[in-house]
Amino acid sequence: MCIKLIEDLPMASSAELYQLSWVIEQLLADPRRIVQVRAQLHTGQQVQYLSWGDGKLRSARVVGIHGDHVAILDAAFNKAFKVHYGAILTDPPAAPTESGPTPADVELNRPSPPPEIAGRADFRVGNRVTFTDKNLQHRVGLIVRINQHTATLDCDGQKWRVAFELLRHLVDV
Known about the structure:
Elements: H1 3-8, H2 14-28, H3 31-38, E1 46-50, E2 57-65, E3 70-74, E4 79-83, E5 88-89, H4 103-109, E6 128-132, E7 138-146, E8 150-155, E9 158-163, E10 168-169
Antiparallel strand pairs: 1-2, 1-5, 2-3, 3-4, 6-7, 6-10, 7-8, 8-9
């Protein structure tokens, strides 16, 4: 993030700060970002989270994964908290060096953009697809019907209706 922009924030008007807050909330609520973080989490995993109270990174253990938040147990407080997926760091931050990060390190640590969302036009009856169900289990199926907002899949004899946004084409190698 550009340090110059951060230094200029105190000079922004309240309306500009409110608008920035709204934009950030919309970006954090993007389902693609939530799915990206959820795919890396599992119960019992040690993670770091950004504490809203003091803005510091703290260590905790995941005790539950929910629709819009993660339940974590912070040993320092011996208490479970609900935090937004955006507050979770699954990879430990790299140790800073005396000379600071190199441009290569900055490029490696830059998060990848959220994956593109697929739409109805991207799928046809007979396509083999994969998706992650609500229990974070990977499923593979064959599209047997295209509906207005979902595709009906045959996954090992079970019928699933899945939104196009959650489907990915299965690539055979």
